[in-house]
Design brief:
- It holds the Pfam family Peptidase_M36.
- One of its GO terms (molecular function) is metalloendopeptidase activity.
- This is Zn-dependent metalloprotease.
- Keywords: Hydrolase, Metal-binding, Metalloprotease, Protease, Signal, Zinc.
- This protein has 505 residues and is an alpha+beta fold.
- The chain folds into 3 domains: 102 residues, Nuclear Transport Factor 2, Chain: A; 69 residues, Nuclear Transport Factor 2, Chain: A (Roll), CATH 3.10.450; 306 residues, Neutral Protease, domain 2 (Orthogonal Bundle).
- 32% of the residues lie in helices and 25% in strands.
- The chain is built from 12 helices and 19 strands.
- Strand 2 and strand 3 form a beta hairpin.
- The longest helix is centred in the C-terminal third of the chain and has 23 residues.
- The chain starts with 13 loop residues before the first strand and ends in a 7-residue tail after the last helix.
């Protein structure tokens, strides 16, 4: 709080090049009998080549795990496609393609084939109807009706060397809108994978980037004036792309669902407003939360808060914002400077939802809660730094929001360089004590870079419990570096955390 579905990663395709480039494609104009003969010949040659290269490609020597799909003939060459199978059923999403150039030479093999050592046996297999019921449950279908036919296919997925029987169910739902593909375990009904097959819309909007104080490099001439526009504030608007929108014309997408009294909607997905319009804060919340989730995924974390979180904007008049661990949503207050006008505040609250997702109930003690507040301030500060690219507001968070309650220059919700030392400076209040924790995190980012430090910090959270202490948090940071980097930053981590009175041993 601010104060004033197992998804497995797709295996990388195995690509083997043979030194011949295919530079163009075109349709064949040869007689059908000749095309058929070429197709048969291309397949025969591809079969022979795959058997010859079976060891390198990790294929069964007799190609028993491959089913021929088709051959596409073009002037540039032939393309022979196979489907991986188990017991005659497809392995979802796993194919192999062989490219043969016009001279008959093999120029490329791209293989998704995954070897496996065993096949899971299911005694009580779900019916197709039961699998579809499970799929509707897993996508959170609100029963608004389908807009297309549901498709259901039995097959296999491969995980950890085992072929697992599953149903691939595609549900065309109106709410949540999308063509939802779910992979459901054929025995237990457990969700193995979920994604929306529809191409997402990309819209555009105006936002502060990250807030007008940081982007302008000064807060002295910026006044809230009850949400009124001013030349100084309007000059700080930046046009940005809004990714992952579901195409409904609302601010609903892969990682954010904005709920607001403004009921922002535009069928063209163009959301260009100034701050005097309540819809501006809706765009701010959508853009910055979506960007934060995409950022942590770029670090390799696809399992931290990977969901569409509800952001309640302009629904609460207090000068405060919070994450609800019971409702799993975010609320941004409109007292003072509207909290959703400051990306630092947005990032801070999203940090709470990330930690709760990693460790449910995180921050159940004073020190645990202080680490939660400190991490939120860290996330807000480094996010602001990365967007602004200037020195104004360094080691400070929420400079624009703070203009309504801070006389500092820059005005700060809190600072990350107060040099507090544990335990003498701890007062038993999570926001104040959070400054003990935020400073070493921020110093780690300054020493290693934002990406490296954030990776270590996020990795460390999984080692903690809801009641974890400062010292346990510090040890988890060092352990994460050991796991990720073989401990190469250990001495630096010792020095940074020891300076705050925290033990890494």
């Amino acid at each position: 709080m601010m104060r004033k579905k197992m998804i497995w990663p797709a295996a990388a395709a195995l690509v083997i090049t043979m030194g011949v480039s295919v530079c163009q494609q075109g349709s064949s104009t040869a007689p059908s009998s000749m095309v058929k003969a070429q197709e048969i010949n291309a397949k025969a040659r591809a079969d022979a080549y795959l058997k010859e290269q079976a060891g390198a490609l990790k294929l069964p020597q007799d190609l028993s795990g491959l089913s021929y799909v088709n051959t596409v003939q073009t002037e540039a060459g032939s393309y022979v496609r196979y489907q991986q199978t188990v017991n005659g059923y497809q392995v979802f999403g796993r194919q192999l393609a062989v490219t043969v150039d016009p001279s008959g030479e093999f120029s490329l093999v791209v293989s998704d084939y995954i070897p496996y050592t065993s096949v899971e046996q299911v005694e009580d297999k779900l019916s197709k109807g039961q699998a579809e019921s499970k799929a509707h449950k897993w996508i959170g279908d609100k029963g608004k009706g389908d807009w297309g036919t549901t498709k259901n296919t039995f097959g296999y997925v491969i995980q950890n060397g085992m072929a697992i029987p599953a149903y691939k169910v595609i549900v065309h739902a109106k709410e949540p809108f999308g063509a939802w593909e779910t992979i459901v375990h054929a025995g237990t009904g457990k969700l193995l994978k979920k994604k929306d097959l529809n191409q997402k819309a990309i819209g555009s909007g105006h936002v502060f980037y990250p807030n007008p104080a940081e982007s302008s490099g000064s807060a002295s001439s910026l006044v809230d004036n009850n949400d009124a526009d001013s030349p100084e504030l309007t000059a700080q608007l930046k046009r940005v792309a809004l990714q992952g929108l579901d195409g409904s014309g609302t601010l609903t997408g892969d990682f954010v669902n904005v709920y607001s009294k403004a009921k922002t909607k535009n069928k063209s997905n163009v959301f260009h407003y100034t701050r005097s319009d309540d819809r501006f804060e809706d765009v701010m919340a959508y853009y910055h939360i979506d960007r934060l989730q995409r950022y942590i995924q770029s670090l390799g974390f696809t399992n931290i808060n990977n969901r569409s979180i509800t952001a309640n904007v302009n629904t609460y008049k207090g000068d405060n914002s919070f994450y609800s661990p019971t409702k799993k949503d975010l609320t941004f207050g409109s007292g003072g400077v509207d909290d959703a006008e400051d990306a630092g505040v947005i990032a801070h609250e999203y940090g709470h939802s990330m930690q709760d997702n990693q460790v449910p109930g995180f921050g159940d003690s004073i020190e645990g809660g202080s680490m939660g507040e400190g991490f939120g301030d860290y996330l807000g500060a480094v996010y602001e730094d990365a967007l602004s690219g200037n020195s104004f507001g360094r080691a400070c968070v929420a400079e624009w929001d703070a203009t309504s309650y801070s006389a500092g220059d820059p005005p700060c919700l809190r600072r990350l360089d107060e040099n507090k030392v544990y335990p003498k400076d701890a007062i038993g209040e999570v926001h104040a004590d959070g400054e003990i924790w935020s400073q070493p995190l921020y110093e780690l980012a300054n020493a290693l870079g934002r990406d490296a430090a954030t990776t270590i910090i996020l990795q460390s959270h999984w080692s903690l419990t809801p009641n974890a202490s400062f010292n346990e948090g510090a040890r988890a940071i060092k352990q994460a570096d050991e796991l990720l980097n073989r401990g190469k930053n250990g001495k630096l981590i010792d020095r940074i955390f020891n300076a705050r009175g925290l033990s890494t041993k």
